[in-house]
Design brief:
This protein is α/β, with parallel strands linked by helices and 397 residues long. The chain is built from 14 helices and eleven strands. It has two domains: 196 residues, Type I PLP-dependent aspartate aminotransferase-like (Major domain) (Aspartate Aminotransferase, domain 2); 136 residues, Alpha-Beta Complex (Aspartate Aminotransferase, domain 1), CATH 3.90.1150.10. The structure holds pyridoxal-5'-phosphate (PLP).
Amino acid sequence: MFDTQQKRSLTTQAVHAGELIVPNTSHPLSQPIYQATVYGFDSLEAVDEAMSGATQGYAYYRIATPNQVAFEQAMATLERGETAYASSSGMGAIFASLSAAVQSGDHIIADRRIYGSTYSLLTNQFPRFGVETTFLEIADSDAVRAAVRPTTRLLYFETIGNPLLQVADLEKLAALGHELGLLTFVDSTFTSPALLRPLEWGIDVVLHATTKYIGGHSDALGGIAVGRTSFITSARQTGMVMGLAQGPFDSWLNVRSLKTLPLRMATHSRNALAVARWLEGQSALQQVIYPGLPSHPQHELATRLMPEGCGGMLSFELEGGLPTVRRFIKALKAIPFAPSLADVTTTITHPATTSHRPFSPEERLKLGITEGLLRLSVGIEDVADIIEELDIAFKAL
Ligand SMILES: Cc1ncc(COP(=O)(O)O)c(C=O)c1O
């Protein structure tokens, strides 16, 4: 490195001045952002050690940065897992971990009601590489047993399904997977480790779109896979060559957000339960779906898995289909329509036109995703204000 304190030309100083100012009598209370694509080494031996993994050295952004590793370690701790791999998006984590588990000729069994892009990955992309998926009601053990082939490798489902909020019986599914010799993968985006830790129930791999509750502020895209070191190492290898690493700024934001995750999840859950109870009293509704409500078909399972609350996602179906949905959304002034979820801000979306667009209208109807269905991501505002805003929209109908 050029010492720019020495007499140097302005051209050299422009390239090197202010390169590395490291405090040596104090330390920062939050990890700095290592916004560097590449790291310098003092010797070939040091390169060798870092690249072989013998030392915790960093070489290249796509392989790992200190911020990515910090976030991975934090998530492995919270999920009670051995190792984590953080990727640039939720889909990146799903792709890296699923493709580490299968090869051409293999078969996957997935719940029929999964997030639209995961469905699209399994129906449009994986078949091009010779991997087939059977979609079924994952809670139906007999159907799962009947669908198993010699080439089946894994079971795939979501802790709380999007947008119908069905709850997966993790203990039962983990036992079934192990009995059948299959890995179990669960997308826990709707729950987060503050409410539910699937590895503790015997699941093999837990996935998150960290874009949602983990990040929590709609400012960082990301994903993570947590599980046994041997498996996550393979997922990491896939992620590295596919260029899926989580960027340092996103990882930094995620570590920042984890500090308030339990507080946020407690408020999301409390507010969502209050809103769901209020919605049950509204007449223009065909149904209100929230696992924390006694009317939810899996309420007992939900409270057993999530004794501290069922999160901030709830769905409801308006009578009158699409025309009523349009009027309702227009009448909401303070709650934005946003095709995402899990922000500290309350948002609303229409699954048929957003998250479940990849399904055909017939497939959506079969699943129960009707045109009147809205999904509310209940934020951490004062719940009285959220209810007042919804009330205005109901009165406008
Ligand atoms: C349940 C679930 N899994 C995965 C994803 C994909 O995450 P990302 O958009 O970060 O790729 C989403 C996105 O909405 C989701 O809701």
